[in-house]
Amino acid sequence: MRAMPPFDEAQITEFKDAMRQEVQKTYADVDKKATALGEVMDEFKKKLEGKADTTDIDGRLKDLTEELKKAGDRADEIERKANRGGLGGGGAEHKSAGQLYTESDEYKQLQRQRGGRQIVEMKAITSLASPAARNPLQTVQSVPGIIAEPDRPLMVRDLLPVGTTTSLTIEFPKENVFTNAAAPVAENTTKPESGITFTAEMARVATIAHWIAASKQVLDDASFLQGYIDNRLRMGLMQKEDTQLLNGDGTGTNMLGLIPQATAYDDTGIPGVPTIVDTVRWMKLQVRKSYYSADAVVLNPADWAALELLKDTHGAYLYAAVTTGATPRLWGMRVVESDEIAEGNALVGAFSLAAQIWDRQQASVMVSTENGDNFVKNMATILAEERLALTVYRPKSFVYGALTPPAP
After folding, report:
1. Binning pLDDT at 50, 70 and 90, where does residue 343 land?
2. Phage capsid-like C-terminal domain: from which residue to which, for each copy (predicted)?
3. Is 123 domain-assigned?
4. Most exposed residue of 7, 237, 284, 323, measured as fewest CB within 10 angstroms of its CB?
């Protein structure tokens, strides 16, 4: 094979510039042809709707389709030159953008429709940022998937037993006052009478929901987006559920959460100045006095970090498993980090016995094209919704309060 003559830098630069201009010009011609074809297709559809004669448009459609194909072929040939090296270089030939497009399902659908415009509306969070214009001779490596923001850890639901209900309200009797008169008695004497009273409590089923608008074309053309959106919407529900289970104040449509129903921490008689660790243990004792055993403590991540960093006089960590990554526990209780509890406070409780979640409708995602004017705008509404209630059977089995005593 005859060796190719060497090329200097100026010749290579000149070739690149010429190729770039030719590619830009050719693709501009493709865009114009596609636009013209779309306009003729619009006219064709209007005539069909009006039952008018379309003979003249049939010929124009045929001509424009042929011109568009030729323009695409020219663009393909230019890219093939560039991919082969252009100046006589060897190397494997790669499929051009034009080839990839004409082999795509979208192009085949366009041919079946005898033209037409491929318009994609980008709305709400489905909008994709347009990349800056790039050199057509450059190659791009695409990373699959979407780089998402991290999700907040969700732990509160995991602590509570879950039941199901078909009602709008959960009604349950809650012990009010128990007078224990049990005592040893002599034979043939009247036994002492104890007393217990109950109050009827109700927990209303709350609805947590949100939605977004998305272009139907976007969901069709990038099917992975719908699965991604589904997951993000479900995660949004779980985050708001976490907030409601802890802090819901019971007003309006809010749930009545664990912290508003918890018993305030009572540090009366606590000796000395307790540390964070001491306070959590005293809270556990207060729960135990309600005859339930505390099984978990909810802490703000900052407080748990401060506790893990505690050291003895030799500089050794007291509680942190630096190398093993053991399950976080404190005084035998599971430690749950939650951003929804105020820093400097803790919630200690018998989560597995003293409260329960009731699912009326588990988290679900629905898609509708019939909301408002969605149908005529080719839009879809994606709705995520769940319905649940929280019952707290024994508020004394949850203790909430500050981890450190107030300054004197």
Report:
1. very high
2. 143-401
3. no
4. 323
111 pLDDT more than 70: no
**Could you give the number of structural domains in the chain?**
2
From 93, 118, 143, the end of a domain falls on: 118
Q: How many residues does the chain have?
A: 408
Decide: pTM greater than 0.70: no
Burial of 240 (0-12, 13-18, 19+ CB in 10 A): middle
Residues contacting 50, CB < 8 A, separation 6+:
none
Average pLDDT over residues 202-223: 82
- One-character DSSP codes across 189-211: SPPPPPEEEEEEEEEEPEEEEEE
Residue 388, beta-bridge partner list: 206, 359
Which of 72, 103, 118 marks a domain boundary? 118
Count Cα neighbours of 115 within 13 Å in the Cβ-side half-sphere.
Answer: 26
Residue 189 lies in a domain: no
- 331, 386: one domain: yes
**Three-state SS letters, 151-193:** CCCCCHHHHCCEEECCCCEEEEEEEEEEECCCCCCCCCCCCCC
* Structural domain that includes position 39: 9-118
**pLDDT averaged over every residue in the chain:** 76
